[in-house]
Design brief:
single chain; about 100 residues; mainly alpha; Non-ribosomal Peptide Synthetase Peptidyl Carrier Protein, Chain A; globular
């Protein structure tokens, strides 16, 4: 039986798992109640996240996911395109999928 590889489901990350990670870390970084960090919440307008907080979020996600799967790299230049919490989740899921191919 072949050993399981990192590129074939070893990470165990789907949009639900990534969503939970993003919400938890974002609430922690911003000092917000986890109930405030809803998918439709706007990062800057609703949650008062600045670019530094979002860079910290990217670093935290890279560190956590890097421990569980082959390294993931989120591009800081993409921050400006992310408006809501759901956008961050979708972005991270897409990066994971691309990097596992």
């Amino acid at each position: 039986m072949p050993a399981e590889t990192h590129s074939h489901g070893a990470s165990g990350f789907d949009s639900v798992a990534v969503g939970a990670l993003v919400v938890d870390r974002l609430a922690e970084l911003l000092g917000r109640d986890i109930d405030d960090v809803r998918p439709e919440a706007r990062l800057r307008d609703d949650l008062d996240a600045d670019d530094l907080a979002l860079l910290d979020l990217f670093d935290t996600i890279e560190d956590e996911l890097g421990e569980r799967t082959v390294g993931i790299q989120l591009e800081d230049d993409d921050l400006g395109e992310l408006v809501t919490v759901a956008d961050v989740v979708e972005y991270v899921v897409n990066v994971i999928e691309r990097q596992q191919r």
